[in-house]
Amino acid sequence: MYDDDFEGPYVPPERTRATRMFPARSRASGRGFVIAKLRAGTAWRQLIFESDLERKCLLVLLSQRTVVNIWDQPPQITYRNQVGKATSHTFDFLVTLEDGKKIAIAVKPGALAERNGFDREFALIKAQTAKQFADDALLVMDSSLSAAEVRNAELLHMFRQAEDVEADLVVQQILRGMNCETSLGQVVAATGLQGRAFRAGFKAVFDGIAMTNLSLPVTEASMLSMPEVR
To answer: What pairing do the DSSP bridges indicate for beta strands 136-140 and 182-183?
Structure first.
């Protein structure tokens, strides 16, 4: 017997697709996973990370509407290093965009990449990555991610963990009825749903229902407008 508001038995998330696993504990890095529902599938899935920077990068990727799938620790590729020796590299993430393009992503702290020459090594890796594997390759470092986009991505991930269809519909109805810029706080006040409406409005921005300046943290003071019709 289940409560009336409970939709059914618990369904565990799908396991990570990672081809390379690492020890669960390390003194040198922060390892873990997030649970996310990607546009490419209907089930929640486990995505692993090996450092806090990888975690931040992963959450920012999950916040992008153009991203439909993420493969954590995809199959390794082979390339020739600076002395011509064949070696292998495993990207941290392989991202599929809605236009079908695939982007291979390596994540390294900037100081470490400079100290061990990985920035130079990555140029070789990128040049030798087959187009069948990825259309492009990117090196993500600390400087690649702003504090605002990380903070927004962290909140978005937290808000997406619990669905609130009622609040989503109420907020979306108000947003679609706007005829001028309106603050997120005004939208929240109009619903009477308080925190539920803030979470719904926050998600609506990243779902493309409303627009705001995402170079800043999204707060109740954020001014919302409707996307231009193309």
So the answer is: unpaired
Q: How far apart are CA 206 and CA 170, in angstroms?
A: 17
| Bridge partner residues of 29 (DSSP) | none
Non-local CB neighbours of 230 within 8 Å, separated by 6+ positions:
none
Rg of the chain over Cα atoms, rounded to whole angstroms, equals 20
- Residue 120's H or E segment, with its range, is helix 118-128
Placement of tokens 């109009």 in the chain: 190
- Give the integer Cα–Cα distance in Å for 95 and 62: 10
pTM for the whole thing? Answer: 0.90
**φ and ψ at 63, to 5 degrees?**
-85, -10
Residue 21 CA neighbour count, 13 Å, CB half: 7
Tokens encoding 32: 């873990």
CA distances from 165 to 172, 174, 176, 190, 204 (A): 10, 14, 16, 17, 12
- pLDDT, tens digit (0-9, with 9 covering 90-100), for 13-56: 888 988 877 665 555 557 899 999 999 988 999 999 999 999 99
The contacts found for 133-136 with CB under 8 angstroms, 24 or more apart, are: 133/75, 133/77, 133/94, 133/102, 133/104, 134/91, 134/94, 134/102, 134/103, 134/104, 135/101, 135/102, 135/103, 136/101, 136/102, 136/103, 136/104
How far is Cα 67 from Cα 45, in angstroms, rounded to an integer? 15
Cβ neighbours around 204 below 10 Å, total? 22
